[in-house]
Amino acid sequence: MNLAALLKGKTVFITGASSGIGAHLARLCAGCGANVAQAARRIGELAALEADLTALGAAGVLSLRLDVADEESVRAAIAAARERFGALDVIVNNAGVASDAAAMDMSAAEFDLILGVNLRGAFLVAREAARGWRAEKRGGAIINIASVLGFRQASGVAAYAMSKAGIVQMTKTLALEWARHNIRVNALAPGYFDTAMNAEFFASEASKVLIKRIPMRRIGDPGDLDGPFLLLATEASRFMTGAVIPVDGGHLVSSL
Ligand SMILES: NC(=O)c1ccc[n+]([C@@H]2O[C@H](COP(=O)([O-])OP(=O)(O)OC[C@H]3O[C@@H](n4cnc5c(N)ncnc54)[C@H](OP(=O)(O)O)[C@@H]3O)[C@@H](O)[C@H]2O)c1
Questions:
Q1: Whose CA is closest to atom 23 on ligand 1?
Q2: CATH code of the domain containing 139
Q3: Whose CA is nearest to atom 19 of ligand 1?
Q4: Which of 3, 136, 128, 145 is nearest to 64 (CA)?
Q5: The whole model's pTM is what?
Protein backbone atom coordinates (compact mmCIF):
# COMPACT_ATOMS: atom_id res chain seq x y z
CA MET A 1 0.00 0.00 0.00
CA ASN A 2 1.42 3.40 -0.99
CA LEU A 3 0.50 5.65 1.94
CA ALA A 4 1.84 8.83 0.33
CA ALA A 5 -0.35 8.27 -2.74
CA LEU A 6 -3.42 7.94 -0.48
CA LEU A 7 -2.87 11.53 0.70
CA LYS A 8 -2.65 13.02 -2.80
CA GLY A 9 -5.39 15.62 -3.39
CA LYS A 10 -6.57 15.47 0.24
CA THR A 11 -6.66 18.59 2.41
CA VAL A 12 -4.66 18.67 5.63
CA PHE A 13 -5.00 21.45 8.22
CA ILE A 14 -1.97 21.66 10.53
CA THR A 15 -1.73 23.84 13.64
CA GLY A 16 1.67 25.04 14.85
CA ALA A 17 3.12 24.63 11.35
CA SER A 18 5.56 27.54 11.65
CA SER A 19 8.38 25.43 13.10
CA GLY A 20 9.57 22.04 14.30
CA ILE A 21 7.33 19.00 13.95
CA GLY A 22 4.42 20.96 12.44
CA ALA A 23 6.59 22.45 9.70
CA HIS A 24 8.01 18.99 8.99
CA LEU A 25 4.54 17.44 8.71
CA ALA A 26 3.47 20.26 6.37
CA ARG A 27 6.43 19.42 4.11
CA LEU A 28 5.57 15.73 4.27
CA CYS A 29 1.96 16.40 3.22
CA ALA A 30 3.13 18.76 0.48
CA GLY A 31 5.43 16.07 -0.88
CA CYS A 32 2.43 13.72 -1.06
CA GLY A 33 0.54 16.20 -3.25
CA ALA A 34 -1.97 17.26 -0.59
CA ASN A 35 -3.54 20.68 -0.08
CA VAL A 36 -1.83 22.13 2.99
CA ALA A 37 -3.54 24.65 5.26
CA GLN A 38 -0.71 25.67 7.60
CA ALA A 39 -1.65 27.67 10.66
CA ALA A 40 0.20 29.39 13.51
CA ARG A 41 0.53 32.79 15.18
CA ARG A 42 3.72 33.77 13.31
CA ILE A 43 2.27 34.32 9.86
CA GLY A 44 5.64 35.61 8.61
CA GLU A 45 7.27 32.22 9.31
CA LEU A 46 4.47 30.48 7.44
CA ALA A 47 4.77 32.83 4.47
CA ALA A 48 8.47 31.97 4.25
CA LEU A 49 7.62 28.25 4.05
CA GLU A 50 5.01 28.58 1.30
CA ALA A 51 7.36 28.45 -1.70
CA ASP A 52 9.03 25.36 -0.26
CA LEU A 53 5.68 23.55 0.11
CA THR A 54 4.70 24.41 -3.44
CA ALA A 55 8.07 23.22 -4.77
CA LEU A 56 7.66 19.93 -2.90
CA GLY A 57 4.42 19.30 -4.80
CA ALA A 58 1.57 20.61 -2.64
CA ALA A 59 -1.69 20.75 -4.58
CA GLY A 60 -2.42 24.05 -2.84
CA VAL A 61 -1.02 26.01 0.11
CA LEU A 62 -2.83 28.36 2.46
CA SER A 63 -1.17 30.14 5.38
CA LEU A 64 -3.46 31.15 8.21
CA ARG A 65 -2.87 33.23 11.30
CA LEU A 66 -4.18 31.16 14.19
CA ASP A 67 -4.08 31.36 17.96
CA VAL A 68 -5.57 28.08 19.18
CA ALA A 69 -6.21 29.65 22.60
CA ASP A 70 -8.70 32.04 20.97
CA GLU A 71 -12.04 30.46 20.05
CA GLU A 72 -12.84 33.05 17.37
CA SER A 73 -9.42 32.65 15.79
CA VAL A 74 -10.00 28.88 15.57
CA ARG A 75 -13.42 29.36 14.00
CA ALA A 76 -12.08 31.85 11.44
CA ALA A 77 -9.05 29.74 10.44
CA ILE A 78 -11.04 26.55 9.90
CA ALA A 79 -13.71 28.48 7.96
CA ALA A 80 -11.03 30.05 5.74
CA ALA A 81 -9.46 26.65 5.00
CA ARG A 82 -12.88 25.19 4.15
CA GLU A 83 -13.65 28.12 1.89
CA ARG A 84 -10.34 27.78 0.04
CA PHE A 85 -10.23 23.99 -0.36
CA GLY A 86 -13.92 23.07 -0.22
CA ALA A 87 -13.54 20.46 2.49
CA LEU A 88 -11.01 19.31 5.06
CA ASP A 89 -9.88 15.70 5.28
CA VAL A 90 -7.27 15.69 8.06
CA ILE A 91 -6.77 17.93 11.09
CA VAL A 92 -3.40 17.87 12.84
CA ASN A 93 -3.51 19.26 16.35
CA ASN A 94 0.18 19.99 16.71
CA ALA A 95 0.41 23.49 18.27
CA GLY A 96 2.04 23.30 21.67
CA VAL A 97 4.01 25.20 24.28
CA ALA A 98 6.18 24.00 27.16
CA SER A 99 7.64 25.48 30.31
CA ASP A 100 10.45 24.40 32.59
CA ALA A 101 9.02 26.07 35.70
CA ALA A 102 9.01 23.91 38.81
CA ALA A 103 5.43 23.16 39.84
CA MET A 104 5.68 25.07 43.13
CA ASP A 105 6.92 28.18 41.37
CA MET A 106 4.50 28.06 38.47
CA SER A 107 2.03 30.92 38.27
CA ALA A 108 -1.63 30.32 37.56
CA ALA A 109 -1.21 32.35 34.36
CA GLU A 110 1.57 30.06 33.13
CA PHE A 111 -0.46 26.96 33.96
CA ASP A 112 -3.45 28.41 32.11
CA LEU A 113 -1.29 29.22 29.08
CA ILE A 114 0.05 25.67 28.77
CA LEU A 115 -3.30 23.95 29.31
CA GLY A 116 -5.01 26.63 27.21
CA VAL A 117 -2.85 26.00 24.15
CA ASN A 118 -2.00 22.30 24.45
CA LEU A 119 -5.33 20.92 25.65
CA ARG A 120 -8.16 23.46 25.38
CA GLY A 121 -6.76 24.74 22.07
CA ALA A 122 -6.59 21.24 20.60
CA PHE A 123 -10.16 20.61 21.74
CA LEU A 124 -11.41 23.84 20.14
CA VAL A 125 -9.78 22.92 16.82
CA ALA A 126 -11.13 19.35 16.92
CA ARG A 127 -14.63 20.54 17.86
CA GLU A 128 -14.73 23.16 15.10
CA ALA A 129 -13.61 20.65 12.49
CA ALA A 130 -16.07 18.02 13.72
CA ARG A 131 -19.01 20.44 13.66
CA GLY A 132 -18.22 21.17 10.03
CA TRP A 133 -17.95 17.50 9.10
CA ARG A 134 -21.25 16.77 10.83
CA ALA A 135 -22.95 19.60 8.92
CA GLU A 136 -21.42 18.39 5.65
CA LYS A 137 -22.40 14.78 6.44
CA ARG A 138 -18.89 13.59 5.78
CA GLY A 139 -16.19 12.17 7.99
CA GLY A 140 -12.59 13.11 8.61
CA ALA A 141 -9.47 12.22 10.55
CA ILE A 142 -7.99 14.07 13.51
CA ILE A 143 -4.41 13.46 14.58
CA ASN A 144 -3.45 14.87 17.96
CA ILE A 145 0.21 15.30 18.81
CA ALA A 146 0.49 14.00 22.37
CA SER A 147 3.82 13.09 24.02
CA VAL A 148 5.46 10.35 26.03
CA LEU A 149 4.89 12.81 28.89
CA GLY A 150 1.20 12.02 28.57
CA PHE A 151 2.10 8.63 30.09
CA ARG A 152 5.29 9.15 32.11
CA GLN A 153 6.67 11.95 34.24
CA ALA A 154 9.77 14.09 34.59
CA SER A 155 10.62 16.98 36.89
CA GLY A 156 9.91 20.51 35.73
CA VAL A 157 7.24 19.65 33.19
CA ALA A 158 4.19 19.15 35.39
CA ALA A 159 1.73 21.35 33.49
CA TYR A 160 2.99 20.14 30.12
CA ALA A 161 2.66 16.49 31.18
CA MET A 162 -0.85 17.15 32.52
CA SER A 163 -1.82 18.76 29.22
CA LYS A 164 -0.51 15.79 27.24
CA ALA A 165 -2.23 13.26 29.51
CA GLY A 166 -5.36 15.27 28.75
CA ILE A 167 -4.67 14.91 25.03
CA VAL A 168 -4.45 11.13 25.42
CA GLN A 169 -7.84 11.01 27.13
CA MET A 170 -9.31 13.58 24.72
CA THR A 171 -8.25 11.37 21.82
CA LYS A 172 -10.10 8.39 23.29
CA THR A 173 -13.25 10.19 24.41
CA LEU A 174 -13.70 12.07 21.14
CA ALA A 175 -13.03 8.86 19.21
CA LEU A 176 -15.88 7.23 21.11
CA GLU A 177 -18.33 10.11 20.67
CA TRP A 178 -17.55 10.82 17.04
CA ALA A 179 -17.19 7.34 15.54
CA ARG A 180 -20.90 7.50 14.59
CA HIS A 181 -20.07 10.58 12.49
CA ASN A 182 -17.27 8.71 10.71
CA ILE A 183 -14.71 10.93 12.39
CA ARG A 184 -11.58 9.09 13.46
CA VAL A 185 -9.51 10.55 16.30
CA ASN A 186 -6.02 9.18 16.88
CA ALA A 187 -2.77 10.50 18.30
CA LEU A 188 0.97 10.22 17.98
CA ALA A 189 2.97 10.31 21.20
CA PRO A 190 6.46 11.42 20.21
CA GLY A 191 9.44 10.85 22.45
CA TYR A 192 12.15 13.52 22.46
CA PHE A 193 12.80 15.42 19.24
CA ASP A 194 15.28 18.30 18.88
CA THR A 195 13.08 21.32 18.02
CA ALA A 196 12.83 24.95 19.17
CA MET A 197 10.75 23.73 22.12
CA ASN A 198 13.67 21.92 23.77
CA ALA A 199 16.77 23.14 21.88
CA GLU A 200 18.22 24.54 25.12
CA PHE A 201 17.85 21.17 26.84
CA PHE A 202 19.53 19.27 24.02
CA ALA A 203 22.48 21.68 24.18
CA SER A 204 23.01 20.68 27.85
CA GLU A 205 24.84 17.78 29.52
CA ALA A 206 21.56 16.62 31.09
CA SER A 207 20.31 15.61 27.68
CA LYS A 208 23.12 13.03 27.34
CA VAL A 209 21.88 11.29 30.49
CA LEU A 210 18.36 11.24 29.10
CA ILE A 211 19.48 9.77 25.78
CA LYS A 212 21.16 6.89 27.64
CA ARG A 213 17.75 5.94 29.05
CA ILE A 214 16.14 5.68 25.60
CA PRO A 215 16.36 2.02 24.54
CA MET A 216 17.34 3.01 20.98
CA ARG A 217 19.95 5.45 22.42
CA ARG A 218 18.99 8.43 20.28
CA ILE A 219 16.41 11.17 20.08
CA GLY A 220 13.93 11.33 17.24
CA ASP A 221 14.47 12.77 13.82
CA PRO A 222 11.32 14.42 12.38
CA GLY A 223 11.34 11.84 9.56
CA ASP A 224 10.77 9.13 12.18
CA LEU A 225 7.18 10.40 12.40
CA ASP A 226 6.43 10.03 8.69
CA GLY A 227 5.23 6.43 8.58
CA PRO A 228 3.01 6.59 11.69
CA PHE A 229 1.64 9.97 10.57
CA LEU A 230 0.73 8.76 7.08
CA LEU A 231 -0.90 5.68 8.58
CA LEU A 232 -3.21 7.81 10.76
CA ALA A 233 -3.83 10.44 8.06
CA THR A 234 -5.02 8.03 5.38
CA GLU A 235 -7.53 5.30 4.68
CA ALA A 236 -4.81 2.84 5.67
CA SER A 237 -6.08 3.31 9.25
CA ARG A 238 -9.78 3.29 8.35
CA PHE A 239 -10.63 0.87 11.20
CA MET A 240 -8.48 2.69 13.81
CA THR A 241 -9.83 5.29 16.19
CA GLY A 242 -8.84 6.19 19.74
CA ALA A 243 -5.30 4.90 19.21
CA VAL A 244 -2.29 6.68 20.68
CA ILE A 245 0.88 5.53 18.97
CA PRO A 246 4.24 6.12 20.68
CA VAL A 247 7.06 7.16 18.33
CA ASP A 248 9.85 7.26 20.87
CA GLY A 249 12.68 4.81 20.23
CA GLY A 250 11.23 2.66 23.02
CA HIS A 251 11.34 5.42 25.67
CA LEU A 252 7.98 4.38 27.13
CA VAL A 253 9.19 0.83 27.65
CA SER A 254 12.47 1.86 29.27
CA SER A 255 13.45 -0.15 32.32
CA LEU A 256 12.66 1.13 35.79
N1 LIG B 1 9.98 18.28 20.41
C2 LIG B 1 9.67 17.24 21.17
O3 LIG B 1 10.52 16.54 21.73
C4 LIG B 1 8.21 16.85 21.32
C5 LIG B 1 7.93 15.64 21.94
C6 LIG B 1 6.60 15.26 22.10
C7 LIG B 1 5.60 16.07 21.67
N8 LIG B 1 5.90 17.25 21.07
C9 LIG B 1 4.79 18.08 20.63
O10 LIG B 1 4.95 18.38 19.26
C11 LIG B 1 4.24 19.59 18.99
C12 LIG B 1 5.15 20.50 18.18
O13 LIG B 1 6.24 20.91 19.01
P14 LIG B 1 7.70 21.18 18.44
O15 LIG B 1 8.62 20.31 19.19
O16 LIG B 1 7.71 21.16 16.98
O17 LIG B 1 7.97 22.66 19.01
P18 LIG B 1 8.07 24.07 18.29
O19 LIG B 1 9.06 24.05 17.19
O20 LIG B 1 8.23 25.04 19.40
O21 LIG B 1 6.63 24.25 17.62
C22 LIG B 1 5.50 24.63 18.34
C23 LIG B 1 4.50 25.20 17.35
O24 LIG B 1 3.30 25.53 18.06
C25 LIG B 1 2.86 26.78 17.62
N26 LIG B 1 2.06 27.43 18.64
C27 LIG B 1 2.40 27.72 19.93
N28 LIG B 1 1.39 28.35 20.53
C29 LIG B 1 0.39 28.48 19.62
C30 LIG B 1 -0.90 29.05 19.65
N31 LIG B 1 -1.39 29.65 20.75
N32 LIG B 1 -1.66 28.99 18.54
C33 LIG B 1 -1.19 28.40 17.41
N34 LIG B 1 0.03 27.85 17.32
C35 LIG B 1 0.81 27.90 18.42
C36 LIG B 1 4.14 27.57 17.29
O37 LIG B 1 3.87 28.54 16.30
P38 LIG B 1 3.70 30.11 16.58
O39 LIG B 1 4.66 30.48 17.66
O40 LIG B 1 4.02 30.72 15.24
O41 LIG B 1 2.26 30.28 16.94
C42 LIG B 1 5.00 26.47 16.67
O43 LIG B 1 4.77 26.37 15.30
C44 LIG B 1 3.80 20.15 20.34
O45 LIG B 1 2.46 19.82 20.59
C46 LIG B 1 4.70 19.43 21.30
O47 LIG B 1 4.15 19.36 22.60
C48 LIG B 1 7.18 17.67 20.89
A1: 16
A2: 3.40.50.720
A3: 20
A4: 128
A5: 0.98
